[in-house]
């Protein structure tokens, strides 16, 4: 099984990088749309299950919070490598799907290796197929296997830009189960 290589080594580093890159002075409030009204408002820790160097690990990430001075709503800056409302990182989910699409081991072995149940794997597979179609279009999605898509997508020099565009267009994150979330996206 091949491991997923990322431009940033860990999800915690990705959170730090997103916070450093986010230009909150120029950002618009996801609630009221006011530009330039976002102010830093602390942070919170979050445990995330990730896949690093061939091992499943729990990682503590810090997400910065911002408060809109116009509508007083608070918002969390969630980097694209984290999936809102999920204890699993995007890297973890894609690692599971990569193992599934490679077909080098039975599903039960994949689930045991990653510590998930079969129903979770199949739920992620269905979300992946749906979101892949949204990201590249139905026709292009049918021409590209899941394995080829994941490999090409993760090796892209544009990573994670397609994730930002996906969220901006559809209002939810790639492989996110709940779809009612809004979040800040670095500009």
Q: How is this structure best described in words?
A:
This protein has 187 residues and is of the alpha+beta class. It has one domain. The protein is 41% helix and 17% strand. It has seven helices and three strands; from the N terminus they run αβββαααααα. A hairpin with a 2-residue loop joins strand 1 and strand 2. Helix 2 crosses helix 4 and helix 2 packs across helix 6. The longest helix is centred in the C-terminal third of the chain and has 19 residues. The termini are far apart. The N terminus is likely disordered.
Number of helices: 7
Q: Give the oligomer, counting copies of the same chain as homo and different chains as hetero.
A: single chain
Main β-sheet description: 3 strands, antiparallel
Query: Radius of gyration, rounded?
Result: 17 Å
The span between the termini is: 35 Å
The number of domains is 1
Strand content: 15-25%
Task: Give the % helix.
Answer: 40-55%
Alpha-beta classification: alpha+beta
* Order of strands, widest sheet: 1-2-3
Q: Uncertain spans, ≥5 residues at pLDDT below 50?
A: 1-7
The coarse silhouette is globular
SSE arrangement, N to C = HEEEHHHHHH
Indicate the mean pLDDT.
83
The total beta strand count reads 3
